[in-house]
What we know:
The chain is mainly alpha-helical and 133 residues long. It has helices at residues 3-6, 20-50, 57-64, 67-103, and strands at residues 9-10, 13-14, 119-122, 127-130.
Amino acid sequence: MDRNEHLGYQGGTYKNALTWLDMMGMGIGTIIGAVVCVFAAFNYAEIASMIPISGSAYTYTYATLGEFVAWVIGWDVMLEYIVGAAEVAVGRADYVEYFLHEASGGSINFDKNWSNSPVIWNEDTQAFEVIGA
């Protein structure tokens, strides 16, 4: 299965994968998410007005919940940055590999270990697998 078949592309058109109910659910979920974000912004504004030196999740947590919880939040933020950077790197490597393959007329081929994530989702077993890329 090539890239286009995987995305549902069928010779000039995409097949419909979402029903009106799916679209309605996504719209309602988006509205609920926006309301939650507004309340989170109000919460941060309230805390920022009470604690003038704060400006990040770490300092808010340090000022309100203490040093240990702030330490956990700090390392959680570091983990978030690491995972985010790894995902961006995998995505960009795949695009560069695809571009070079197409630009060279198919003469440049890379081993998939250069652009695959080290952990993938296996559709057959419905589980994560470590592929060692």
